[in-house]
Inverse folding.
């Protein structure tokens, strides 16, 4: 049978077979239960339902390997997280955790063993074999592993595995300068098309690129100068293949309404389309973030602005808002953050000019 993912096989009769681990036999080998379906989606759903009903407790938790634990945790995670998050978890587990730790029993893991694993990832962790991963990437891997360990502790009573998280220093993120913003704004307004209008809209609303790609004309109220963020577009990797998914925004607070600057209203009105059409394409099919990123690079080159990623527009928007006196609470809601602390710590970047402006206000006490 051809394998189609974690314990999913294509049978000769055309059906898919999915196997879910339901415990251990007396000899210590894993016991599985199979479900069958005509489509891959159906068999995955049946596997999730089987797990949700409740697995039998293992005969002996001493036999539980990291691979067994990770597969069970992934099934559990699939029931509660978005497809994009699940795809990220699956990638981390299959590419980084299982190749090194998969065959080791959970009860055999120690702090020293896990710290050695972390060091290996920092020094030689790249999948290409050339060098190590950043501390941030290793922290992401170990966050997933910690969740697996917590799951195992709750399900089987195995103690959680302790280890030292690598220190990750937050990089200083630059924003576009005033001169760069002028160049970009002049180019976008002088060369009006759907893509350029979309980039200009991001500059003055702070939308994420996925939110921009998911924006339909029905989400834009030109009469009241408002736009609503209701969906996002993402390309998700699923076991070696990828697909574009239209889903809900990043978090509950990401669903929001944003006022549109008045000067953008007439520019948007020129391209107003069928309510169900997407802003960037003007059709019923959205563009994907990777395409928008590539177009943005061509725009930067055309207006002689240095190469930066699309997300810098969001950082720039936040910084410009602070320079114009926006309070942190208002800004955090405009950006769709859960609290103002995230906004101030990650998205607001004080320029030297800003610092001089504030310091100039200091005077001798009269």
């Amino acid at each position: 049978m051809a394998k189609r993912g974690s314990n999913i096989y294509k049978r000769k009769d055309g059906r898919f077979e999915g196997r879910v681990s339901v415990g251990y036999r007396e000899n210590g080998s894993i016991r599985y239960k199979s479900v069958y379906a005509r489509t891959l989606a159906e068999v995955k759903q049946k596997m999730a339902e089987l797990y949700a009903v409740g697995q039998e407790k293992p005969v002996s938790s001493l036999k539980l390997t990291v691979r067994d634990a990770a597969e069970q945790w992934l099934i559990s995670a699939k029931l509660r997280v978005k497809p994009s998050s699940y795809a990220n978890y699956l990638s981390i587990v299959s590419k980084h955790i299982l190749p090194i730790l998969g065959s080791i029993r959970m009860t055999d893991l120690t702090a020293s063993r896990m710290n050695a694993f972390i060091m290996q990832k920092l020094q030689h962790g790249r999948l290409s074999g050339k060098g190590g991963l950043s501390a941030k990437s290793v922290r992401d891997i170990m966050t997933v592993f910690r969740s697996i360990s917590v799951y195992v502790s709750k399900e089987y009573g195995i103690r959680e595995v302790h280890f030292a998280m690598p220190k990750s220093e937050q990089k200083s993120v630059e924003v576009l300068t005033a001169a760069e913003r002028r160049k970009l704004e002049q180019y976008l307004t002088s060369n009006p098309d759907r893509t350029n209008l979309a980039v200009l809209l991001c500059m003055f609303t702070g939308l994420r690129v996925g939110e921009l790609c998911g924006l339909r004309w029905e989400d834009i109220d030109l009469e009241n100068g408002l736009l609503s963020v209701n969906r996002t577009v993402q390309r998700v990797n699923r076991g070696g293949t990828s697909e574009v998914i239209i889903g809900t925004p990043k978090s509950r607070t990401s669903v929001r309404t944003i006022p549109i600057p008045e000067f953008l209203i007439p520019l948007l009105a020129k391209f107003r389309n069928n309510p169900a059409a997407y802003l960037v394409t003007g059709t019923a099919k959205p563009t994907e973030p990777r395409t928008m990123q590539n177009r943005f690079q061509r725009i930067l080159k055309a207006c002689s602005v240095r190469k930066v990623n699309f997300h810098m527009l969001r950082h720039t928007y936040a910084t410009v808002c602070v320079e114009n006196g926006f309070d942190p609470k208002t800004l955090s809601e405009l950006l769709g953050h859960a609290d103002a602390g995230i906004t101030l710590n990650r998205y607001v970047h004080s320029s030297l000019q800003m610092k001089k402006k504030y310091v100039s206000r200091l005077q001798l006490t009269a």
Notes: The longest helix spans residues 135-156.
